[in-house]
Design a protein that fits this description.
OB fold (Dihydrolipoamide Acetyltransferase, E2P), 2 helices, Single-stranded DNA-binding protein, DNA-binding, 8 strands, globular, ssDNA-bd, mainly beta, five-stranded mixed β-barrel
Length: 157
């Protein structure tokens, strides 16, 4: 099983669907910023929330909302419009949290307001918390660029 955390912005309002078997699924389209060298890229992920999980949060999720998603990751392949093979990332959502440490200027309040709103941010796992104050003044990128704590030869792929 491949499990991961994603931090990003919703590309659209959540979509509610029903499978052919009658199961309810809410689909979030999540844009996750990443940096490759000096180039910024956005990786698009489809996040599936099954059955009635997070029903009380769904009405508050809108296009542009910043969220933290944790769940089982899978890669799916499909044929692009031009006939070339493409890949997409899909997440079966286990944990969903609002990200009050947004880097979008229109969603930032005063520093004092952001500090108060970040006091109790957690990822939903026992003893594990996210210190969003560290990331508040940086863009939301995987690895934060040069601050990575591993050498490139340590990465197995």
């Amino acid at each position: 099983m491949l499990f991961g955390y994603l931090v990003g912005f919703l590309a659209a309002d959540p979509e509610e669907r029903m499978t052919s078997g009658g199961k309810r699924v809410v689909v979030l389209r999540l844009g996750v910023k990443s940096r490759v060298g000096s180039k910024d890229e956005t990786v698009w992920c489809r996040c599936n929330i099954w059955n009635n999980r997070y029903d009380k949060m769904i009405p508050y999720l809108k296009k542009g909302s910043s969220v933290i998603v944790a769940g089982e990751l899978s890669v799916e392949s499909y044929m692009g419009r031009d006939g070339s093979p493409q890949a997409s990332i899909s997440v079966s959502v286990d944990t969903l949290k609002f990200n009050s440490g947004s880097s979008r200027p229109e969603s930032r309040g005063s520093d004092e307001g952001r500090q108060r709103s970040n006091d109790n941010v957690s990822l939903g796992f026992e003893g594990e918390s996210l210190d969003t104050e560290i990331a508040l003044d940086k863009e939301v990128y995987a690895g934060f660029g040069e601050d990575q704590q591993y050498a490139s030869e340590d990465v197995p792929f």
